[in-house]
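Priority: medium. Attachment 1 of 2:
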């Protein structure tokens, strides 16, 4: 018998051959689907039951799978038993376990029973809901769910279908940014002419997600017109409205045309928050489109005590967050609201003869194909609907608050240990920390370390640079050592020249005991690394 956790399946060749033939008599036979479906559900349930047995970060080497799998596809059918055995033996070792309770890297990709089952329903129906007629329920449920969620976030009514705006489910924030940027581009070019595309300028901070730069390239924005506003540690890496205005003013004086500002609530590196109100005020003076990217932090804003982080959103043109990050809805599910849906549809609409129908021509329905890049689209609203109904607003708030509480616990551990420091204030459930410079320098002795320690001018630029490099190197070693152990998984960033470790709480299975154990792992590895530095003579 083979096994996956507590789940066992037969390995008899005769049984496997029978199962293989039966499963292929009709690839959608209901009873065979029922049989195999139960097996896959059991497999996944056991995977979650035993997930802590696996190293969080996959330990395989590049190219490992090619050595394990055949060089060509099978000619004859194989059974689900055989395939699941190979999943366990060959695929699971190559997975980084994002749903592990010991996963604290990047941002969460939180799942839930409701999210998974909603995904199953959507996949089971397998509709291609590009317009209303292709599946009315898919379109109408999406519009309803987006208004529900907008109300939970207390978005201005101008973003909702119940106002003059509306919401759409995109795949990712990358798509949401590109769609809104294209709408902003075309809105301006309709006024100044397509020949002037080379004059268009877009703006963001040095903490903005790299997706924006890619979107600008795809949208045809001159790379020389991509403006990045510097941020500093003193302002917790949020964008400065005054610096933005100065940059825009210089561009206008040079004959350029500002069209788009991307502001962020919860940046990737440090979860910094840009001041939406003042930034929107600047953009308004120049007729610019403002998009608010709250991919990570938007979820927590359903909690009243966190809603202030998106104050000023009323001045923006569009707003998005990823329900697949921290809202217990499986990938992919990006929620995008716009004040002026016609701006999207004017840029993204297609109207071939084979898609013409009376419902579309009535102007009484939404055709979501015209709100996105692709024609085909998935029934994403079904899983979001299940999440909202299965847990309700209050329980969802409770889940999110528990993650923030656990992050506070970890932050308390960091602050209580004089070898560590919190680098930037924690806004949500991500703690940015490092081994402190003083802890590193107190251990230094000869060579460059001694030069820094014994320098008569500790404030000199060379001393500062060398010292920062040493501290960064020690923290990089700490992160690599921790992740190499497989016990927990964290990621890093470099901001203002500072190498920091990011401890992002948000995996659905994480409990406070996992946070406590994670801190023990951090301490153990830090102790070993600091003790490997020769002590000062």
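Attachment 2 of 2:
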């Amino acid at each position: 018998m083979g096994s996956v956790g507590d789940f066992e399946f037969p390995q008899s060749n005769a049984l496997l051959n029978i199962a293989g033939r039966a499963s292929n008599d009709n690839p959608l036979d209901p009873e065979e689907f029922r049989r195999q479906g139960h097996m896959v559900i059991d497999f996944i349930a056991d995977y979650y039951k035993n997930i802590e047995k696996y190293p969080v970060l996959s330990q395989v080497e590049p190219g490992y799978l090619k050595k394990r799998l055949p060089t060509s596809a099978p000619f004859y059918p194989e059974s689900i038993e055989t395939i699941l055995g190979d999943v366990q033996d060959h695929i699971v070792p190559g997975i980084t376990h994002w749903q592990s309770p010991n996963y604290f890297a990047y941002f969460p990709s939180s799942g839930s029973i409701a999210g998974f089952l909603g995904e199953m329903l959507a996949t089971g129906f397998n509709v291609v809901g590009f317009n209303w007629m292709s599946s009315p329920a898919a379109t109408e449920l999406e519009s309803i769910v987006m208004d529900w969620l907008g109300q939970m976030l207390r978005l201005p009514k101008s973003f909702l279908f119940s106002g003059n705006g509306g919401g759409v489910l995109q795949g990712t924030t990358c798509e949401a940014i590109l769609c809104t940027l294209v709408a902003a581009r075309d809105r301006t070019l309709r006024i100044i002419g397509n020949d002037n595309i080379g004059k268009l300028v877009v703006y963001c901070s040095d903490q903005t997600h790299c997706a924006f730069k890619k979107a600008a390239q795809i949208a045809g924005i001159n790379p020389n017109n991509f403006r990045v506003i510097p941020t500093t540690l003193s302002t917790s890496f949020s964008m400065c409205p005054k610096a933005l205005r100065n940059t825009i003013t210089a561009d206008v004086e040079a004959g350029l045309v500002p069209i788009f500002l991307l502001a962020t609530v919860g940046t990737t590196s440090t979860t910094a928050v840009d001041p939406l109100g003042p930034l929107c005020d600047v953009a308004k003076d120049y007729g610019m489109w403002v998009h608010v990217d709250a991919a990570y932090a938007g979820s927590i804003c359903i909690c009243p005590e966190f809603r202030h982080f998106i104050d000023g959103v009323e001045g923006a043109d569009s707003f998005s967050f990823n329900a697949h990050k921290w809202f217990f809805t499986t990938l992919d599910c990006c929620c995008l609201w716009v004040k002026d849906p016609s701006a999207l549809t004017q840029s993204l609409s297609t109207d071939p003869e084979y898609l013409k129908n009376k419902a579309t021509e009535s102007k009484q329905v939404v055709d979501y194909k015209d709100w996105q890049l692709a024609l085909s689209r998935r029934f994403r609203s079904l899983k979001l609907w299940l999440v909202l109904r299965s847990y309700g607003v209050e329980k969802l708030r409770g889940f999110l608050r528990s993650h923030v509480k656990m992050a506070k616990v970890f932050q308390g551990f960091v602050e209580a240990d004089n070898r560590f420091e919190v680098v930037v204030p924690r806004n949500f459930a991500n703690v940015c920390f490092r081994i402190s410079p003083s802890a590193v320098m107190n251990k230094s002795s000869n060579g460059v370390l001694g030069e820094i320690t014994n320098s008569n001018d500790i404030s000199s630029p060379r001393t500062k640079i060398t010292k920062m490099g040493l501290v960064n190197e020690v923290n990089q070693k700490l992160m690599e050592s921790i992740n190499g152990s497989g016990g927990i998984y964290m990621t890093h960033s470099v901001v203002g020249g500072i190498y920091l470790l990011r401890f992002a709480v948000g995996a659905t299975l994480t409990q406070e005991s996992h946070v406590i154990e994670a801190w023990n792992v951090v301490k153990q590895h830090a102790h070993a690394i600091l003790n490997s530095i020769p002590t000062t003579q």
